[in-house]
Write a structure and sequence with these properties.
83 residues; mainly alpha; 0% strand; elongated
């Protein structure tokens, strides 16, 4: 149980603290990589931590690629436009 408390403290320090600023997965992971701490499956742990962060889920938009709606374009033969 001591290990779990330490992981929570480390993640809190590198993601939730005022200096950390609730950055995304890559920035938090890079901060942890240069820190003196080592976690097994660190990237996976960071993704899980951030996906469960209430503040991040509430304020950051979901990344979604916008796609134009498909439609039909009626054309006659090659190089002709229908008016």
């Amino acid at each position: 149980m001591e290990t779990v408390k330490m992981i929570i403290e480390i993640m809190d320090e590198h993601h939730n603290s005022r200096g950390a600023g609730h950055f995304g997965v890559m920035k938090t992971y890079k901060k942890l990589k240069i820190s003196p701490y080592y976690l097994l499956e660190m990237k996976k742990s960071v993704k899980k931590w951030i996906s469960n962060c209430v503040i991040c889920q509430r304020t950051k938009p979901a990344i979604r690629k916008e796609v134009a709606p498909l439609g039909r374009y009626m054309a006659g033969g090659p190089m002709k436009r229908k008016q």
